[in-house]
TrEMBL record:
Protein name: Fumarylacetoacetase
Catalytic activity: 4-fumarylacetoacetate + H2O = acetoacetate + fumarate + H(+)
Domain Fumarylacetoacetase-like C-terminal: 125-408
Gene name tied to this protein: fah
Record GO terms (molecular function): fumarylacetoacetase activity; metal ion binding
Enzyme class per UniProt: hydrolase
Residue span, Fumarylacetoacetase N-terminal domain: 15-118
Keyword RNA-binding attached: no
Biological pathway: Amino-acid degradation; L-phenylalanine degradation; acetoacetate and fumarate from L-phenylalanine: step 6/6
Catalytic residues as annotated in Swiss-Prot or TrEMBL: H133 (proton acceptor)
Similarity remark: Belongs to the FAH family.
Amino acid sequence: MSFIKVNATSHFSFNNLPYGIFSTTNNPKRRIGVAIGDQILDLSLIKSLFQGPVISKHQYVFDQPTLNAFMALGYEAWQEARKTLQMLLSANESTLRDDVSLRSSAFVNQSVATMHLPANIGDYTDFYSSKDHATNVGIMFRGKDNALMPNWLRLPVGYHGRASSVVVSGTEIHRPVGQMRPDQTKPPVFGPSQQLDFELEMAFFVGGQTSLGQRIPIEKAHEHIFGMVLMNDWSARDIQAWEYVPLGPFLGKNFGTTISPWVVPMEALLPFVEPNSIQEPKPLPYLQHHDPYIFNINLFVSIKGQGMQQPKTICKSNFKYMYWTMKQQLAHHTVNGCNIRPGDLMASGTISGPDAESFGSMLELSWRGSKSITLGDKEIRSFLKDGDEVTMTGYCQGDGYRVGFGECVGTILPSLQH
């Protein structure tokens, strides 16, 4: 229990304490904060209170404009910092609670803060780890008998995305332009994408660092997973369909990827861990782990068109539907000696469940445009229209509290092709 009042439906309970980067009009400097209730605790103003054996030597990390330096300190430092925060924010601890001057300056209302990207993202990798999603897409493009490619059940499939176009929630996204071939009997055409889509994903930030040639064994993978965010992997399906053979996504993906601003630490998610998916055939030894590392995170996607008064929820899914775990993703990513750096971002791939309501993309919800998605009396979609605001949100439900991620929001603007 904290001395800061937190509503039971708030995503930012005392059990959460996510990290983010914020600024205010009064202080435009970007700084590290921790969300609790409707408040942000400014860590740059209380860095001297971190007196543990690891952080006390590195208090400067809380003066940085990104989380990279803190992420670089590693697993023991993250655990120590969390324990210090829990102590300082607890109802029985007077250090912050009773220091009127420090408390008034160190806490900022979220309503007056501007949120920024949590880290300087050097590299971004997107996996493809939902079996239901991969199966759905495979059926659409290859038929039911050849839905999953032979490698899918053997390893976590992924591709390297574009880190420069990862943006924080609230950033508007222009409809991309590119080559498409809507009529297979005619040459390709150039213009704005007509099949713009969202993809409901989650992603984790990497902490610690490895050298080139060094792999992360699966037994140590959790020590490099700093925390998680929501992610919208915007996708131009028609551009992607024409370009992806044989090397995979390119212009259909790299025009924008949106993440939520608050990074929820893995320690906050551990109470909501679920048994891993049954994996058949059994993965190779370097991908095997028996401790559960799938999490019960309720996920929602809504769309609000320009003519709509209220958003319409069109997807209700859950992170527990994932087939490959984050540990397996990271172990596979580095098994060939690929080095990682603090702030690297690794995404889950579209999160879909077994029923239509849990499909995490419009490609699936509309079944490649063959079905209509009803948003309101006059609002029908197969894919996104200009002006559509897409909101993703997610939380774990505890006993009288939530551990949530806030929102991941983006609005589609017309293309810049004029």
